[in-house]
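// run 5 | inverse folding | seed 20
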């Protein structure tokens, strides 16, 4: 149960992360905003259109809303929910905090991304601090990719591309296309940065 989602039939989604077609469904939507010199394709992730179509039927099923949990040790964790309301499909991103019984929504994607998002260092902090005492995604590479849509930081380190390529390889992206996917994803994420001087980190609790 997650506060505010009692109208939806939430189900654990972690087993879907290893299904062919998941990462194309989850990450290529970020490239749908335009600006790519070449058309993004599932083959970047070692998948194909049949894989994507088959898994989209599962991910966007109004009768079952997949939930992906990334609990963190000693700090905020994250939850991703496919909000499959009829006529109001979207993806919600929430933070969980130690000592709190509810999760706080910080961003969503309803066609376009909106919300606070995370800096690169905040994203890495959550990705690299799995809580093995709680159910959810434990592998740092998979956690990193799950959190990637939350990145709203124009100043990523030089190592960002290598980190993303390595994570994509872990989930099955071919070596010859992982770098292409990483380049496109980072370009879109850093270009759409939502941070401004008055921005307050959602991890600060403010």
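// decoded
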């Amino acid at each position: 149960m997650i506060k505010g989602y009692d109208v939806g039939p939430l189900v654990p989604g972690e087993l879907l992360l290893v299904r062919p077609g998941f990462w194309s469904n989850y990450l290529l939507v970020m490239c749908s905003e335009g600006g790519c010199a070449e058309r993004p394709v599932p083959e970047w992730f070692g998948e194909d259109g049949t894989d994507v179509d088959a898994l989209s039927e599962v991910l966007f099923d109004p009768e079952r809303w997949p939930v992906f949990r990334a609990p963190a040790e000693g700090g905020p964790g994250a939850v991703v929910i496919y909000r499959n309301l009829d006529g109001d499909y979207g993806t919600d991103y929430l933070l969980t905090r130690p000592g709190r019984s509810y999760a706080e929504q910080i961003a969503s994607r309803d066609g376009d991304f909106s919300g606070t998002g995370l800096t690169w260092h905040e994203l890495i902090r959550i990705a690299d601090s799995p809580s093995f005492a709680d159910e959810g995604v434990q592998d740092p590479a998979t956690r990193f990719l799950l959190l990637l849509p939350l990145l709203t930081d124009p100043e990523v380190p030089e190592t960002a591309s290598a980190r993303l390529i390595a994570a994509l390889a872990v989930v099955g992206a071919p070596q010859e296309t992982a770098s292409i996917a990483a380049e496109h994803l980072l370009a879109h994420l850093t270009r759409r940065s939502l941070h401004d001087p008055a921005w307050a980190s959602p991890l600060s609790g403010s």
